[in-house]
Amino acid sequence: MLPQPNTPLRCLPIIEDLSWADEVAYLAYTFSKGPHEEFPIWHRFEPGWYIRTIRIPAGKLLLGRPHRDGHIVKLLEGTVLHVQPEGKVYRHAPYRLHTCPGYIMIAYAVTNVMAETWHPVEDDVYDVRVLEERIADTAQSMLNHGRVVADRVDYALALQEQGITQGTVYERFRLAEEGAALPTSNGYKVELGVSRIHGKGVYTSAPFAADDTLAPMHIGGQRTWVGRYLNHSVEPNARAVAIGDDIFAIATGPIPQGTELTVNYRQVLQICQSQS
Q: How far apart are CA 45 and CA 121, in angstroms?
């Protein structure tokens, strides 16, 4: 029996509509919070091809980026546990794989591994930086995607912790309609937009500094539309603060203009419970 990796290779199964790309992005985001290493890569060219050679030490997990076009993968030395949407399978050198656009490689090195990826090139471009931008999404775009998935996963966990369902949340929001209007005299610099996380969201229409007051979430015992549409995040840029009988969203750090505002629902709930 070959060894199994200790690293979890699937996202928490608490959101049914996560795609494979969502799960991989979530995994990348999770890994980015802990120690990780870059594997050595060598680059070379043959007529019509850009070729990348990589060595992976035994016991390491390779998590690739989504590729924009199909390419060829060659396992030259060693054995990997290849993780795919339909399951896991061992691959032994020599092995060859033709991928499709959007493909993401996840491979656990059972032994020391050497592999190559072959990418077709249609012009005389030999700048590796240009080619890397062409063949795959950036690591940052993948992490940004993973952050959004992490927000959704943590939101589902927060509901579980409170013993409520998404249906209950929808019903409460339906009854709340759009929420109370903001006092116009204060000139709050926020606006409603399409959320990157879910549904609608609250965005800044001006930059804010740390500890700035963003907008009221509850006024006079009634939730405002800001309180209605602030989405949950594992790394929120705002927090709820009780001021008298009202609750305000306060910036946790500098926030650029055009940024979606987020809070942690657990912290908001604690404030609301302290007000009751």
A: 10
- Token pair belonging to 258: 């055009």
Q: Report how far apart, in Å, the C-alpha atoms of 198 and of each of 7, 94, 157, 248, 255 are.
A: 29, 44, 16, 22, 20
Q: Are strands 231-232 and 238-243 parallel, antiparallel or unpaired?
A: unpaired
Strand partners, 65: none
pLDDT at res. 4? 45
Beta partners for 31?
A: none
Give the global pTM.
0.75
Confidence band for 15, pLDDT divided at 50, 70 and 90: low
Q: Which of 14-23, 76-85, 160-169, 265-274 has the highest mean pLDDT?
A: 76-85
Phi, psi values for residue 63, rounded to 5°? -120, 110
Report the distance separating Cα 216 and Cα 183, nearest Å.
Answer: 9
Q: Read off the pLDDT of each residue in 43-68 and give the average, rounded to a whole number.
A: 93
**Start-to-end C-alpha separation, the chain:** 58
Q: Following DSSP, what letter does each residue of 31-60 receive, concatenated?
A: HHTS---PPPEEEEEETTEEEEEEEE-TT-
User: Can you list the alpha helix ranges (DSSP code H) found in the chain?
Assistant: 20-32, 128-135, 139-162, 166-176, 225-229, 265-275
Q: Which domains does the chain have, with CATH numbers?
A: 20-141 (2.60.120.10), 178-275 (2.170.270.10)
Report which of 68, 75, 66, 71 is spatially closest to residue 120, judged by C-alpha positions.
71
- In sequence order, what E strands does 66-212 have? 72-77, 79-84, 87-92, 95-98, 106-109, 113-120, 190-194, 200-204
